[in-house]
DNA sequence: GAAATAGTGTCTTTCAGACATTATGTG
DNA sequence: CACATAATGTCTGAAAGACACTATTTC
């Protein structure tokens, strides 16, 4: 790619640019039937009250440094392509999936992070993938999905990056509509609550969650009900695209 | 720098990397005596109740595209240098100043943003500079300071970038200690409130501001007082580095 | 005393969380 | 009926904002 006359000239050259993605997916509870996960953490297998877990696909490194460790999916940035495009491409080539949500996380460029490899500026995105889509995934070569609370040894500074992404998404869910993108067009408040619980990593109080969601005006009832299990059926809701009273949210707020 | 065999090969090459800075400075009210500002917006000139204004240094472009428009200070990223270093260097070469606070804002890399210039990925930082330091600045060649509410025509997407930086800093000031970095080691609550007012761009209620600041535990009284003007002297406070009860804040939170 | 800012007290609203209670379905 | 989840109601405490009021200094 790059031709240098000598070593001293090379030191002044700009580093390479890569784009990586932290992919956060709501794993379905029966994911083991499709993939090869080591730790199922589903919620509706047998009426238990565990919470759904976020899962991250990682790629096993096949060269030094960090040979055999796991790393975030990514690739070099080609000219003429947007950063989002590069992030989506890295996501799709690893998982054969498309994200419900994609946002830039941070750009990591410290020279010390290459650890003997080529100096690299990594523009990192984070993506959200819902249950429905994650069901279709097939485990590609050198790719494995891990629960966020059971991550393997990670290459470079990728552990810090994942932690940062989790901090970001847990903050963002409080003031944006990203959670509604991970459920279908019609959903019960329990389903929506499960998304929040997966991202927060803890249980939420159902009555308070209901009141909070309805008070924002972001969801509205469809009038239909969904019967699932030996209990009272739940009302279905849809995402109210443009709530009248609440203030608009965009990607820039609270970044 | 980069040697390409032909045009088609060039299209696949990575774009150049630059680092730019949105420099936000608390202009002193008598800044006109030092610089050549068009619109003074000081607060203590004659007992008025205007609020201090944030100012931004911009560089006049001396080539196409956007010849004659104003742009953010910046430069190419050299290998072996951290992104922060490049941002500080761009800041210092433009203003001869060092920032109180420096934080990465966002990386802009859309191919359409070059507008006929060379394709460029811009890693943008934002910096805060306090009154004391801004007093020392000298107006360099092609550099001028503008109040944030009276910006000139800007090159590329730099207007969007500045707006984004203002959104970020106004959010960040709510849950971080960046404001205390813009006052001296000892300060009155009025002085601290002026920093908040400059960043928010609006007046704050003094009693409520006092209560809010003291309740966080981030400031503690020194026991001394400062007499300034025909009124009751104000108590001096210092920044309490590690408040006991409040939760720790770091650069990653709420990004 | 007038003026100006420093500082205290109080009231209201809003929101989050804890938790009791009722409602409605299935086995 | 037992049981599980849906949905409503109520209480409390924290935090923010409006604003009245007192305190202390200089001119």
Automatic annotation (TrEMBL), chains A, B:
Keyword Hydrolase set for record:
yes
E.C. no:
3.6.1.13
Keywords assigned by UniProt? Hydrolase
Task: Determine if Hydrolase is one of this entry's keywords.
Answer: yes
**Molecular functions per Gene Ontology:** ADP-ribose diphosphatase activity
Q: What class of enzyme is it?
A: hydrolase
- Span of domain Nudix hydrolase: 14-169
Spell out the PANTHER family in the cross-references.
ADP-RIBOSE PYROPHOSPHATASE, SLR1690 PROTEIN
How is this protein named in the record? NUDIX hydrolase
Origin organism is Bifidobacterium boum
């Amino acid at each position: 790619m790059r031709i240098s006359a000598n070593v001293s000239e090379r030191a002044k050259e700009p580093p390479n640019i890569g784009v990586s993605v932290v992919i956060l997916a709501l794993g379905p509870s029966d994911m083991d039937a499709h993939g090869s996960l080591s730790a199922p953490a589903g919620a509706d297998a047998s009426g238990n009250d565990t919470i759904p877990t976020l899962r991250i696909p990682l790629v096993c490194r096949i060269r030094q440094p960090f040979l055999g460790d796991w790393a975030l999916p990514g690739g070099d940035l080609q000219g003429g392509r947007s950063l989002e495009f590069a992030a989506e491409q890295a996501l799709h080539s690893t998982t054969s999936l498309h994200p419900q949500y994609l946002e830039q996380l941070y750009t990591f460029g410290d020279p010390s992070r290459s650890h003997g490899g080529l100096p690299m500026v990594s523009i990192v995105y984070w993506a959200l993938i819902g249950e429905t889509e994650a069901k279709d995934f097939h485990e590609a070569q050198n790719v494995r999905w891990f629960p966020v609370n059971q991550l393997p040894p990670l290459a470079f500074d990728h552990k810090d990056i994942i932690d940062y992404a989790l901090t970001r998404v847990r903050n963002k869910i409080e003031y944006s509509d990203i959670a509604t993108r991970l459920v279908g067009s019609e959903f019960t408040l329990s389903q929506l609550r499960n998304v929040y619980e997966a991202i927060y990593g803890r249980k939420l109080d159902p009555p308070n969650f209901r009141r909070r969601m309805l008070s924002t005006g972001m969801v509205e009832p469809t009038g239909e009900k969904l019967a699932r299990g030996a209990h009272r059926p739940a009302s279905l809701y849809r995402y109210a695209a443009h709530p009248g009273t609440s203030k608009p949210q965009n990607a820039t707020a609270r970044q």
